[in-house]
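Record 1 of the preview.
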Amino acid sequence: MIQIGNFFFRYRNWLFILLYALLFLPSPELFTEASCGEHYWYWPLAGGLFVTVLGQAVRGATIGLAYIVRGGKDKKVYADDLVTTGIFNHCRNPLYVGNILMLLGVGILANSLYYVGIVMPLFLFIYQAIVLAEENFLRSKFGQSFDDYCVRVNRWIPNISGLSKTFASMEFNWRRWVLKEYNTQFVWLAGIALLILLKYNEALLQRFMRLQPAFSVCMALFSLFIFSESVIAQEEKKGLTLSLGGALELGGDQVAQVYFTNGEDQSVNAGQGGSILVGLEYGFNKYFSLRSVLGYKYVTTAATNANITLTRFPMRLSGVVHFTPKWWASAGYATQQRIVFKGDGIIDNFKLSTSGGPHLEFGYDNFFLNYTGMKYTDNRSSDYNASCFGIGFLFPLKKRARTVMMDIPAK
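->
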């Protein structure tokens, strides 16, 4: 088991990402309409979010009170000190407990019987092996001190007795929690967002429409949070990039049809238009970044006697994976505000609303192809498919700095 644990310790960060990818494999449902009724999806949605947020809370509490270096040394188990304070005073492996709860929660959220019944037991076996390998190292280095710690504190099951005293006696380091958890939170939140979009989009659509203004405010506040914390993170050699760009997109249902005196006609489609974009991207490392984009999207007609337009303000938040320094892909959520059709006296003016939808990009350097899945609803509750494909660009105003680590041989 110790050899197995040493093997998986080297690749445990990639293992976490692989296990997230398995969430999207086809599987029988854990909760079904036959067993839980018409609104059966309430159970995986509420239960999964509760468990996975609890896992992130355990990780946050652990790192905020007493941070432990988890990277090892040369991809091997290593520790300078035996950390027994904070949450480590109640559980020997609180970070791993948090990871287990986070993955179990998203497995429930995915409503995947295979994930909860097969992947999670395999994950528990791997973590048990890793922990045994770590304990073997700690016992050999710290001896009786570690044995006494093992007698006093459980390996897996946290002892909540005295937890309030622990929090009262220590200062919670919010800044450390935010900075150290960027990568984990990025993968975690991206997984949750994609699962909700793929699994619950139709079920939540009508309910979510009523929450659209509040959600837009939350997106703006979250973007502001990313900006402020990114400024702080620059002290840690992280990267922040402001970009300007544009896009041309086609697609969607016909919103209006304009007929000209020469017998020709022109359609105005829900998804088409040209956009001016402003992007803010925070780079966690050379592989992952988080990008927030705001813009103005516009389409008009060839009419010379009237300015007939469809305008909107797109907003999107995406996680970006960098395969190489040039090639990248992103996935996230997009919404639009102030969707207005103006007929300039030729056609009646009207407004539209949207519940938002998934946004995907595949790019090379500063250029990208994109797809957005979305629909509009007018004041008569008529729906228009506003999904679109397009091509765009984002040019950075300042290149993002990246940390370069080098091993200098000793003389």
